[in-house]
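Sorry, can you check?
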Amino acid sequence: MQGYVYLTENDLKRAAKFLGMTARAFEAKYVYRTRHQMRFRKPRDKQCPFLEKHGCSIHPAKPTQCRTFPFWPEIIERRVTWNRAAGYCPGIGKGPLIQIGTALEIAEEQRRAYPELYT
């Protein structure tokens, strides 16, 4: 999968605390910030500095973008994008059924967390 892992200020603070770092030290080591957004620096060999073979190494403090996936507005608003995501997301179609109302609430959380991506 291509793209970046975007962060909110709260995501940054939560991940830093989880790793026992100050927010400033965490940002200096792991974050790329522009005027309008911030994201994890992308290692050459993987999508995210915390993505390991067994999964997310900061799972309890993972960013909102990761926590809300696959219930992003651009995925759940069209059946074709949902079906495409099912091709690369092993969790779609597994586990307990998520009601559409819940999926829409999660999508709205994603939209609120990253308004610059949804304007």
Observations:
- Helices lie at 9-18, 23-30, 64-68, 73-76, 79-86, 100-113.
- The CA atoms of residues 28 and 41 lie 10 Å apart.
